[in-house]
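tokens incoming
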């Protein structure tokens, strides 16, 4: 099958499948015409879910988007080690961008290159109580600038 045929098939499937509800620019899960939980262009979560490869592609896409947002939003982001950038990306992935921006003291410490202070502030949060081990690992990475 050539590329234009493939594009035509994609367009046909998009037309026929639709996407369900959109909230804040994101496609939301919905019940299809026979009551099965579905998302996107007819991806039935009740019957087949996602493959590991599909989940990884989605994760990569979302991570790339967060990385771009962080570079745009935070001047200090480019000065961080890869591990510290990963901490911020992990927090944004977990909390959403607006949720992360509520960590004002953590962000202020990062901006001031006070990574010890940032690591302490990360643990002094409801988020830390909710995600437990994750917050302690990320706090350690923020403090040291290295990977676990």
């Amino acid at each position: 099958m050539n590329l234009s045929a493939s594009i035509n098939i994609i367009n046909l499937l998009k037309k026929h499948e639709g996407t369900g509800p959109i909230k804040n620019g994101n496609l939301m899960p919905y019940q299809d015409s026979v009551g099965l939980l579905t998302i996107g262009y007819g991806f039935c979560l009740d019957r087949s879910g996602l493959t590991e490869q599909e989940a990884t592609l989605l994760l990569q896409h979302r991570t790339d988007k967060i990385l771009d947002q962080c570079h745009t939003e935070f001047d200090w982001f480019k000065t961080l080690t890869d591990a510290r950038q990963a901490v911020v990306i992990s927090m944004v992935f977990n909390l959403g961008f607006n949720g992360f921006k509520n960590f004002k003291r953590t962000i202020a410490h990062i901006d001031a290159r006070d990574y010890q202070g940032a690591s302490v502030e990360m643990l002094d949060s409801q988020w830390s109580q909710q995600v437990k081990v994750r917050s302690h690992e990320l706090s350690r990475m923020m403090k040291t600038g290295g990977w676990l």
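note: The helical segments are 3-17, 52-73, 82-95, 97-101, 104-111, 115-123, 126-131, 133-144.
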